[in-house]
Design brief:
mainly alpha, 9 helices, about 220 residues
């Protein structure tokens, strides 16, 4: 069962409480993002479950420790996704994570993947397509088609230009199409159910990504 996104007014209240040490408030902030964080980590780490678990744990830890650095509460989701990607990059560079966990309340260190994310089904099918896009393109493809992020938001999360995002999306779509044409076992993607959408620069959520077609859409995304 999917968890409903936190309304914006309550999001601000929860962040204020979490910043002064309320662990329950922080858990309520993170819980609706469990699916998104898992998909992002699995996209970056190619489904290696032990590494994914490490990345998710480190993401929650870093979010708890650095919540005071979040300037705009409405961007909590994209901020946490950026942390997740950075943790995945760190794990990719290192064979073993060694984050100091003793100072963090035990309740915050639970693996977010245990809350909502099923082991197979539609998420597994979507991740198969993301992996077919290639390692360099996978994060952009996962953010655009899985999370409904705009090109501008993806550029901010990945720390690259908007044109670089468009190039990665284009290359990713071509690789996916080639995989399907060559008859590789890449299943069709399924639309995310009730996935919470990150805000755009204007404050309105982006339209839901079209992931129900045969492979990913061949339109050129706009910022």
């Amino acid at each position: 069962m999917m968890t409903e996104p936190v309304p914006r007014a309550r999001l601000r209240r929860l962040i204020r409480r979490a910043r002064v040490g309320d662990t329950e408030a922080f858990e309520e902030l993170v819980r609706p993002l469990a699916d998104s964080l898992y998909r992002m980590a699995a996209s970056c780490l190619r489904g290696r479950e032990s590494d994914i678990a490490d990345a998710l744990q480190a993401t929650v830890l870093a979010g708890w420790e650095h919540l005071g650095e979040l300037e705009r509460p409405a961007y909590f989701k994209t901020w946490l996704l950026r942390i997740c990607i950075n943790e995945c990059r760190r794990i990719t560079r290192s064979t073993r994570a060694s984050e100091p966990l003793e100072a963090v309340p035990e309740a915050l260190l639970a693996d977010p993947s245990e809350h909502e994310m099923p082991a197979g089904g539609e998420n597994e099918e979507f991740l198969a397509l993301v992996h077919a896009a290639g390692d360099a393109n996978a994060p952009a493809v996962a953010l655009f088609y899985g999370e409904g992020c705009t090109v501008r938001e993806i550029a901010a999360v990945l720390g690259i230009s908007e044109e670089a995002v468009r190039q990665r999306l284009s290359r990713g779509r071509k690789r996916i199409a080639a995989s399907l044409t060559q008859g590789e076992a890449v299943p069709r993607p399924q639309p995310a159910k009730d996935a919470p959408q990150p805000p755009t620069a204007s404050g309105a959520g982006p339209r839901a990504p079209n992931t129900g077609a045969t492979a990913l859409p061949h339109r050129r995304p706009t910022a």
